[in-house]
Amino acid sequence: MAIGGEIDVNTPSPFWGPNIENATTVAALKGGGFVVAWQSVNWVNNSYDIHAQHFGATGEPLGTEFVVNSTTEQAQRLPTIAGLADGGFVIAWYNGYLGANFQAQRYDGDGNAIGGELSLSVSRTNIDGGAPSITALEDGGFVSSWWHKDSFLGRTPYILAHRYDASGDEVGGVFRVEGSTGSFDRFSTPPQSVSSLTDGGFIVAWAGNEQNSDGLYAQRYDPSGKAVGDKIVFMDTGIGFQQGISIEALKGGGFLASWSVLVFNDGAYETLVRHYDTAGNPVGDAIIVKSSTSGDSSFGQFNTDIALLADGDIVVSWETFSGETGVDIHAQRLSLSSLQPSNSAPVAVDGHSVIAEDAPLTGHVSATDVNGDKLAYALLDEARHGKLLFSADGSFSYTPDKDFHGTDSFTFKAADGSLESAVATHTITIDPVNDAPVIGGSAKLDLASGVLSAVVGRDALSVSDIDSPAAELTYTLATGPGTGSLTLAGATLKAGAVFTDADIAAGRLVYTPGATTNTSDAFEVTTSDGHATSGATRIAVSLAAPQVVQTEAKYGGYWGGSGSDFLQGKETADQLTGGDGDDVLNGNGGNDSLYGGAGNDRVHGGAGDDIITGDDGDDFLDGGAGRDMIYGGAGRDILTGGAGDADALFGGVGADRFVFHLGDGKDRVEDFRRSEGDVIDLRDLGLVAKGIDSFADLKAAGMVQSPQYGGDTVLKFSETDILTIKYVNASQMAESDYWFV
């Protein structure tokens, strides 16, 4: 039933002009209104413009008639409209006569222009043809399509398309529609159209020309603009002359297609409609809506169109030409069920989702039903590597198990109330995300009584990384020890120093206690696998408690007697004797005389010119500042002069290690004996970083000074850091006498 009277769309002009209004198009808008556009030709000044009028839901005009195009060059013709998801609309048109391109203008829900004109085609050419087609997409954007050919004389065109998002920004640029071919001359083109689908994608349909006969085809695209499946063939070539095709999306998925054709064999004209599922497969046979023969008074069926009504029925319209009445318009209402076969089981569709490790997923499984029945979903096999919540409407949520990556899946089926689908599988790919290494809470280092130093191994750090093997890890010293020290291959580490798992495996990382009565120490490290870094973790160090015995000796000074003692000097000249046991002696200031006695002792001279004697046992002897005399005695001793010039180091009997650091000044080794296993430890000098890792390299660098025969070996690292090895000529020294790494 008609609602109200006719509506005057345009501002009327006199019969004699000067304007001719034609090529009208109309589109419904979200919210109930509509907009009409047309081309307005002024035959006086030979100008072509696009005009439009916006209407409300009750048919009242909103504002006045307006000119759409701002470009006036060439002819503005053949408008088309799409209502957008936000209530606005977009109008596209053909801009050209001898040249051509395609323009568009967006409007908001109130009819206000948004931005300037959009150039849909790449550039103006004289080989684009026909009216553009445009459709709104589910995401608020739109897509337009048109015919294009590469040369003026060419007769094998193809379709180009251009997507835009909800903001009017292009998505991916102009692209060629897969499989599109056609035939047109300079002034005519075959029909083509683009239509949105309810899954967020779209479909481009066209009348092609292959093997000198017409065919009707289409190509589907997913919401990302990627072609889906092969070209759809509605009717193939060799059947007859086929007119344009119209597409209408169905709410439950899939679409309807209608077209007209002249069948060569019997001369009949037919208008047909057919149902297709979401995959582009036909559902049932094509239905002939209207058929006429050459004996009818009317002949030729063309310009078919199809629309889905609110009650679920469809209406198909077409035009005919009669020698008696001219062009007539016809329509036929059909039930959607008439296009479908008897009840068929739904088809559950396999699905696939991709998420990152530890990330949640929400989704919806899907199924198709050619009868359009309401479907219910049932879960069959649960996911095995995560928690799945599944609802009868097909929605689900999934959380993978912590740190799991790989493939998980679940199975389901769909039912329409009487028939069930086959089992389908939804596969979930969980991409790995790098996890930072973890230093365990049990990380610690225990030093027993008498231990001068300890290698920090993997067991002490207690590191784990689910992504990377230990060999790929690196470590950074965040905070150094409070009283002791960490060395890497003999070089003292400071905060920020980096070491590797290979260093740990080779035993190069060593902790040495300081001169203290504390029973604990600690340092902090971070670890990295090259992608992620752990937080700073505290490594606890447990030290054996010494017996704090500091008895005043008969003739002055202090002595510890038997046991593991700690003797602390004052800032004056002290005499400290450890006696038996593993003792710690700290001279502090003053010119001290420090005697470790039997046992594995740690003796620190501190400031002042000290005389230090380790005696029996494997002792660690550090002169500290000042001009010190250091005697190792029997055992495998470690001797270092410390800061200050002219320290004299006597290893004594046993395999001793003489350690020289940057800043130690001018020291000398008085009794180097290779026969007893003595070595010179130069690891703290950073020589390897300079490319020096052998005695030969030292000599090549000019750091070795020695007479040809007899005399001493002098190692000059700088003007202030010089180590003299007494009574040993450089020619007598071997590579094994030195530690560089």
Task: Describe the 3D structure.
The chain has 741 residues and is mostly beta strands. The protein folds into 5 domains: 1-238, Neuraminidase (6 Propeller), CATH 2.120.10.10; 243-341, no CATH class; 347-431, Sandwich (Immunoglobulin-like); 438-543, Immunoglobulin-like (Sandwich), CATH 2.60.40; 551-739, no CATH class. The strands form 14 sheets. An 11-stranded mixed sheet has the order 44-45-47-49-51-53-55-57-61-60-59. Strands 46-48-50-52-54-56-58-62 form an 8-stranded parallel sheet, with no helix packed on it. 39% of the residues are buried. The mean pLDDT is 83.
List keywords for this structure.
741 residues, elongated, eight-stranded parallel β-sheet, single chain, Neuraminidase, eleven-stranded mixed β-sheet, Immunoglobulin-like, mainly beta, 5 domains, 47% strand
Fold blueprint:
Layout lengths: L18 E10 L5 E9 L4 E9 L5 E7 L8 E8 L5 E8 L3 E8 L5 E7 L8 E9 L5 E7 L9 E7 L5 E7 L15 E5 L5 E9 L2 E9 L5 E9 L4 E10 L5 E9 L5 E8 L5 E11 L5 E11 L5 E9 L3 E9 L12 E3 L1 E6 L4 E4 L1 E3 L7 E4 L6 E5 L4 E6 L5 E10 L8 E8 L6 E2 L4 E4 L6 E2 L2 H4 L1 E2 L9 E6 L5 E4 L2 E2 L5 E3 H5 L3 E4 L7 E9 L8 E7 L7 E2 L5 E2 L6 E3 L6 E3 L6 E3 L6 E3 L6 E3 L6 E3 L6 E3 L6 E3 L6 E3 L7 E3 L6 E3 L6 E4 L9 E3 L13 H6 L3 E2 L7 E4 L5 E4 L12 E2 L2
Gist of the model:
The chain has 3 helices and 62 strands. It is mostly beta strands.
How much beta, percentage-wise? Answer: over 45%
The biggest sheet, with number of strands, parallel, antiparallel or mixed sense and barrel status, is:
11 strands, mixed
Strand order of the largest sheet: 44-45-47-49-51-53-55-57-61-60-59
Number of domains: 5
Number of helices: 3
> Ends: how far apart?
98 Å
Classification by helices and strands: mainly beta
In one word, what is the shape? elongated
CATH class of the largest domain: Mainly Beta
Helix content: under 10%
Overall radius of gyration:
46 Å
User: What is the CATH architecture term of the largest domain?
Assistant: 6 Propeller
Average pLDDT number: 83
Unreliable runs:
none
CATH fold group of the largest domain: Neuraminidase
Number of strands: 62
GO molecular function, one term: calcium ion binding
InterPro entries: CSPG_rpt, Hemolysin-typ_Ca-bd_CS, Hemolysn_Ca-bd, RTX_toxin/Mannuronan_C5-epim, Serralysin-like_metalloprot_C, VCBS_dom
Organism: Skermanella stibiiresistens SB22
Pfam families: Big_9, Cadherin_3, HemolysinCabind
